[in-house]
Amino acid sequence: MRSSNLLRRPQGLLVIDDDPDVGEYIGQIARKAGYRVAVTNSFQEFRSAYADWVNVIVVDIMMPDVDGVEVLRYLGQKRSKAGLILVSAVDRRVINSVSHLARAQGLWVITGLQNPFTPGRLAEILDNLDTSWVEDDGIRSASPRQGHPEAITTARLREAIERDEILVLFQPKIKIENKKFLGVEALIRWQHPDLGILRPRQFVHVAEDRGYIDQITEVVTMRSLRRLSQWLRAGLDIFLSLNLSPR
Fold first, then answer.
1. pLDDT tens-digit map of 219-233
2. Which pTM value belongs to this model?
């Protein structure tokens, strides 16, 4: 049973693609996966259609009237909590760069898809994504549903380390009595290309069992210490908390 700090939300998907055929193609796949869908073909239509019922947005990052970065900027200003699927026929590196820009604005990137993609690929992403729950600590998580244990394999975990998909987030620590900011706790997440943000409970046990926990620990420790060094040089007197695996 899920804990009470989870908020229930409906499944809603919004598409922005300048090609009506492509937009409808994506919409049909999403409808079959059980989503309420709206398809838009311009930035103006998109802004009119965007609403609270939307919790997944498919964005074509290369459109003639507006590029995907402008759409992401708009969503960042709206403080959107929707998960993003970035779609384009451009080089995968461009999609990855746009994904980094989106995350820098506080947006949740589920994955990037390179056109053309098969209906099965998008359907699998939507089927495996639990979009109906958003955690009220502000960090969205996409959970592989039961029946898809193959999503977290040894080979895939090794690739995650090699491809720099392991993220380190920092949660502030506040003294309750006077609300004073004391420091931060380093939190590990996996930016899975198909399943979105995965929490430690979804993959750390695999890393421990298969001998990759030391590599992940090194990644988390080095990134955390680099960030702490930057804060200290900036004059912040804070502590850093790390959670280390006993194995």
1. 999 999 999 999 899
2. 0.53
